[in-house]
Amino acid sequence: MNAHPLYSPTRCEFDRKLIEQLDGAGPRYTSYPTADRFGPAFGEADYRRALGQRKIGANRRPLSLYVHVPFCNTVCYYCGCNKIITKDKSRADRYLDYLEKEVDLVCRAVGSREKVAQLHFGGGTPTFLSDAQLERVMGMLKSRFDFLPEGEYSIEIDPRKVGRDTVFHLAALGFNRMSVGIQDFDPAVQVAVNRVQSEEETVEVIEAARAAGFRSVSVDLIYGLPLQTRESVAATLARVIAIAPDRVALYNYAHLPQLFMPQRRIDEAELPTPAVKLDILQDAVAALEKAGYVFIGMDHFAKPDDDLARALAEGRLQRNFQGYSTHADCDMVGLGVSSIGKVGGSYVQSQKELDSYYAALDEGKLPVMRGYRMDGDDVLRRSVIQALMCRFSLSVPAIEEVYGIKFADYFAAEMPRLAELEQLGLLSFDGEFLLVTPRGRFLIRNIAMVFDRHLREKATHARYSKTI
């Protein structure tokens, strides 16, 4: 598809007044429909059927694998992830026994040795696993799948638990991308969220990754944490920019103590006000832009020569359950407790509780808790939302040709809201090309929400994060 002559994917504009006007909650669109639409009507037989369809698929793309490691040594008070707090590493041995059972069931269902182009270890804390346990997991995967030499294989790192030797061991196992949790370097903030982590140990891990040949290092920061100020976060960001990671993820802290028990230990009186949070974000965007980082979308930034920035510039950017991705829209198989995957037109999530996960595998069943099978309307809207989230643009003739619709008729209910957003300056739309403006890119979730039929028509009990 040829781009619009005015299209420039790397330009963005922080319009504070517009952001304040439209600030609200909404999905992050790592999938469409979103995970809160998954249900128990989709069961193990449905997942087996979806996996089996890959046997007969012509020119099927390589797989993406996600492995969830639920264990953490300590609890970070801000965290909303599915995790188990323990210092007993022997619990991981039992978990890996069951993970291997799940891998075998998946491989039998697809019926052939699959190629893998992406792998991501998330958690929890994946580096809770010892070097030997990590080697065991990679061994079980490599003995059953063919990992492509050009693939993207990433792991989330807690620098407090990882030294230089482990980083080199990870490289030897095949990992070539790393995500390093920082959140904030300010000592008072670190104590308030129970994550005390020195700059020195963080730098040691990142320098080791570069020496070991990792292709990309990303760091995670959070704004909106207790005791953060405009000045303190600016100081943290300056130190991060000096470290010069390839990618920076700047997440908005969502305080939902009614959903995430550890957050109840955070003193709400110490949280920055919404106005201060917006100050922090505005300053951070300006600092990252001045340092040469490209705004990828939502809360992600990357150096211009990073694969993510190149994918954005070339119109190849994708979005899945791990966020933005450089690879084509391949099937993703989730492995481990609570993991989420997408195979063909189906989404699936594994059991969230460890006992239920183990019980299903003891019965020889894939540990499916819930899922969703897309219909034609879902597939169409998913394509539209993916284009907006990843390319900030949409070619109407291309959508009409692929899906056999007349865009203005099919999306008649959406047209008035699109017109409103155009009046506000978030987008331009001439009937053939929808172009998100530089000032609309920070509000891309608001634009994508226009096309979310489920959000408009069906109630949900989900608590979405703020769009900014």
Automatic annotation (TrEMBL):
It comes from the Bacteria. It is found in: Cytoplasm. It holds the Pfam family Radical_SAM. Keywords: 4Fe-4S, Cytoplasm, Iron, Iron-sulfur, Metal-binding, Oxidoreductase, Porphyrin biosynthesis, S-adenosyl-L-methionine. Pathway: Porphyrin-containing compound metabolism; protoporphyrin-IX biosynthesis; protoporphyrinogen-IX from coproporphyrinogen-III (AdoMet route): step 1/1. InterPro entries: Aldolase_TIM, Coprogen_oxidase_HemN, Coproporphyrinogen-III_oxidase, Elp3/MiaA/NifB-like_rSAM, HemN_C, rSAM, rSAM_sf. Its main location: cytoplasm. Residues 57-291 form the Radical SAM core domain. GO terms for cellular component: cytoplasm. Binds 1 [4Fe-4S] cluster. The cluster is coordinated with 3 cysteines and an exchangeable S-adenosyl-L-methionine. One of its GO terms (biological process) is protoporphyrinogen IX biosynthetic process. It is an enzyme of class 1 (oxidoreductase). S-adenosyl-L-methionine 1 binds at Y66, G123, E156, I340. [4Fe-4S] cluster binds at C72, C76, C79. Belongs to the anaerobic coproporphyrinogen-III oxidase family. Involved in the heme biosynthesis. Catalyzes the anaerobic oxidative decarboxylation of propionate groups of rings A and B of coproporphyrinogen III to yield the vinyl groups in protoporphyrinogen IX. Monomer. NCBIfam families: hemN (TIGR00538). This is Coproporphyrinogen-III oxidase. The gene is hemN.
